[in-house]
Write a structure and sequence with these properties.
single chain, Helicase, Ruva Protein, domain 3, four-stranded antiparallel sheet
Length: 272
């Protein structure tokens, strides 16, 4: 599933293509996603000009000039956004939404149909957005914030930092990498976190995500950006899906399941 660096990369590319462009026509080919696309609401976007494209957590946010409607897109597990010249577009089996501009078409394709497309008039109270946690690259995500919340929880630290109500966009890969850099065992309980460990973890999360964004995200299987390119942070992974620890080179990386997710760590670097 695309996480914050991948969505940020896609957002930047989409922003360059559609910001200040007028929507000429929309076409919902298949409304069946995680929540059905509301075709009539999407139709109302025709003739409107996109004022801005941004990201909130793993959601792409499209705002329009002089209009209250907001288009919200979540990529789910396999959602892909791409662009084609109108004359070059050929329908593919899993295309769900087309948005036509003057000389190109915006295509949303989703094989597994876990993505979603919504129209809202109130972003802050939209049911998928209103309970999201802080952005990890913002000032609000800091040592004191993480420490105070950790004292109120007893889950594993990996579950904690992947909780989208705590902090958004830290997916399985980036959680594993940040915990390795912080020398924190993924199964350690949050109420055992010290202020020093919180400081290190906040710093590691920010550094990992910033570097991943610069490299276009991480491609393990299916992810490609809006230009069809993979993410190159895969080459920089230290612990995720690795056989040996990069520090203790003879030590085999351990993989345990936490909340059903693969959790890679070094039992010499990350002592519980």
């Amino acid at each position: 599933m695309p996480e914050l660096p991948e969505v940020e990369t896609i957002m930047t590319l989409v922003k360059c293509r559609v910001e200040n462009k007028k929507i000429k026509k929309t076409k919902v080919i298949n409304p069946k996603l995680r929540w059905p696309i509301e075709t009539r609401k999407v139709k109302h976007l025709e003739g409107k000009t996109i004022k801005s494209v941004s990201r909130r957590g793993k959601y792409l946010i499209f705002k329009f000039k002089s209009q209250k409607e907001i288009l919200i897109i979540h990529l789910g597990m396999t959602g892909i956004i791409s662009f084609k010249k109108i004359e070059d577009y050929e329908k593919h089996k899993h295309d769900h939404l087309l948005i036509y501009f003057n000389d190109f078409v915006f295509i949303f394709n989703d094989v597994r149909k876990f993505g979603s497309i919504h129209i809202s008039n109130d972003l802050n109270n939209m049911f998928l957005i209103k309970n999201l946690g802080v952005e990890p690259l913002s000032f609000d995500f800091n040592t004191e914030y993480l420490y105070q919340l950790s004292k109120k929880r007893s889950c594993t630290i990996k579950e904690f930092i992947m909780n989208q109500k705590i902090v958004v966009g830290v997916g399985n890969i980036y959680a594993a990498e940040a915990l390795f850099l912080s020398k924190i065992h993924p199964a350690m309980r949050t109420n055992k976190l010290t202020l020093i460990k919180c400081k290190k973890l906040v710093s590691s999360i920010k550094n990992i995500l910033s570097k991943a964004i610069k490299m276009g995200g991480t491609t393990i299987k299916d992810y490609v950006n809006a230009e069809g390119k993979p993410g190159y942070f895969t080459q920089e992974l230290l612990i995720y899906q690795k056989d040996k620890c990069p520090i203790h080179k003879n030590n085999k990386v351990t993989n345990i399941k936490i909340s059903g997710r693969a959790s890679y760590f070094c039992d010499k670097c990350q002592i519980k």
